[in-house]
Amino acid sequence: MARWEPGARERLVLAAVDLFVEQGYDATTVAQIAERAGVTKSTFFRHFPDKRELLVAGQETLSRLLVEGIAGAPAEASPLQAVGAGLVRASSAMGPANRELGPRLKAAVASSAELQERDALKSVSLAAAMTNALLARGVSGATAALAGELGVLAFKRGYAAWSEGDRDDEDDLGRHALAALDELRAASASLG
Amino acid sequence: MARWEPGARERLVLAAVDLFVEQGYDATTVAQIAERAGVTKSTFFRHFPDKRELLVAGQETLSRLLVEGIAGAPAEASPLQAVGAGLVRASSAMGPANRELGPRLKAAVASSAELQERDALKSVSLAAAMTNALLARGVSGATAALAGELGVLAFKRGYAAWSEGDRDDEDDLGRHALAALDELRAASASLG
Questions:
Q1: pLDDT tens profile B133-142
Q2: Which of B115, B137, B153, B191 to substitute to test the interface with A, most A CBs within 10 Å?
């Protein structure tokens, strides 16, 4: 198995998340993040304008990929099939650094009210982005809203299964996200 | 028709939301909120410990009522019927002040990044509360997560229809929330 070596950008994100857990988001400085990642402050600023953007950057990429996947799904795809295409497209950009990040980010979010708010806004924004991409395909309002929420739930549940799973397997996130989407579709039959 | 007169607490919330729209959340002081509401600062502090809690207080009540309604639904109720019971219970506590608040709160949230984060956390927290209440009824993980999201969507969509609707009618929020829940249930059949 090829050994995975994170680049400077990935090291910065991992270092930041660990420091947020250890000492809190507010108390963590850019200098500390750079030092922990083994890079200079200038390297930090080549990748991110500030500490906050370090968390937001990934969200914008994720949102764009989900929307592109939904928009690019075949015209005859059902709303959930389009969401599945979005999940596959977004997952294709997620590598070992993202898998590594999962449990650490969860711990950081649990420890900070500010990060909980950011994380909540991320969920709501991703659902809104998927809903809008579905509306653009002509899906009706209630169905688009529901499918957008299902997409976020599937992404979160798939991501948790992937990042908490056995690291030695070569699974990609896409398989887990699609499995979670299938599980949620099946669950929708038992809502009553 | 009886004329509705808001009490000090309602006037404080409405004044605060309007000031947040006009001049931003950060720039708004407790003194300004009290003055706009026509009460003293001491009256403000009898109702709320600070500016932030003025927004959070309503969320905790709402969450508690949703959970109580779900927990109190008959044992044979389906997951969505239990969510419907939660929506009805929470709606019963919503009067003219809440109806009045809807469009203004929406404008305040649209104008402030901080309020967007708070509002997102509110949605995520309400979904988690309903999901946990359903898990406690023995509903399986995926179904409970999905039903919790449906509950939040139904509440939001019902609240929007209610607060944007004709104020002269005597409609209560519960009817709108249940109609939205029905619409979402129907939509789940067209997810594909």
A1: 999 999 999 9
A2: B191
